[in-house]
Amino acid sequence: MSAEIVQLVEQAEPYLSAAVGAYGAAVFSRAQDVAVDAAADATASLGQRILRAVWHRRDDQGRAALETAVQEAAEEPDEEDAAAALRQQLKRALREDAELAREVAALLPAAGGVTVNVSGTRAIGAQHIGIAASGDNTTIHPAQQ
Q1: 66, 89 in Cβ contact below 8 A?
Q2: pLDDT tens track for 49-75
Q3: Distance (Å, rounded) from C-alpha 19 to C-alpha 28?
Q4: Backbone φ, ψ for residue 52 (5° rounding)
Q5: Cα–Cα distances in Å, from 45 out to 17, 80, 113?
Q6: DSSP letter at 120?
Q7: Which of 18, 65, 82, 122 could lock 44 by a disulfide, CB 3.0 to 4.6 Å apart?
Q8: CB 52 within 8 A of CB 20
């Protein structure tokens, strides 16, 4: 189960970061903010739901530790140690509560899917790409040896 928990935490991390970035330490109590743009709002909202689900399932000591981790991550958004502390709180909660782990897994989008959106004249979109050229009279020369 430990590898599954690590994978869940890795998948949830961008959503947690977005929620902490958008709502800060008020992530547990704040209603959705209409000022946050639609794409960020969807991501932050999911992160907020994950954090709230974890918070509601923890005891007082677990809630305090989670709140501290969120506060530190909000105050120092570029600090890897603060982000790691928040991930550790999530891992601990998921390891201790299998039902919570299933709940968080159900909240997250299915892994493995890739969506690529492109628009505009000569737009190029790909999951993996080598050489791409878009334009008039483009010449690609082989590598010199």
Answers
A1: yes
A2: 999 999 999 999 999 999 999 999 999
A3: 10
A4: -65, -40
A5: 11, 22, 20
A6: S
A7: 18
A8: no
Question: Quick count: other Cβ atoms within 10 Å of Cβ 145?
Answer: 3
Place of tokens 């909660």: 93
The pair of structure tokens assigned to 31 is 């209603």
CB atoms within 10 A of CB 95: 16
Section 109-137 average pLDDT:
67
Residue 140: Cβ within 10 Å count:
7
Distance CA 51, CA 144 (A): 53
pTM exceeding 0.70: no
For 107, other C-beta atoms within 10 Å of its C-beta total 15
Tens-digit pLDDT profile for residues 80-103: 999 999 999 999 999 999 999 999
Half-sphere exposure in the Cβ direction for 45 (13 Å, CA): 12
Fill in the amino acid letter for 53. A
Q: What tokens appear for 78 in the block?
A: 């570029």
Going by C-alpha positions, the residue among 22, 24, 26 that lies closest to residue 40 is 22
The amino acid occupying position 80 is: E
Q: How confident is the model at residue 40 (pLDDT cuts 50, 70, 90)?
A: low
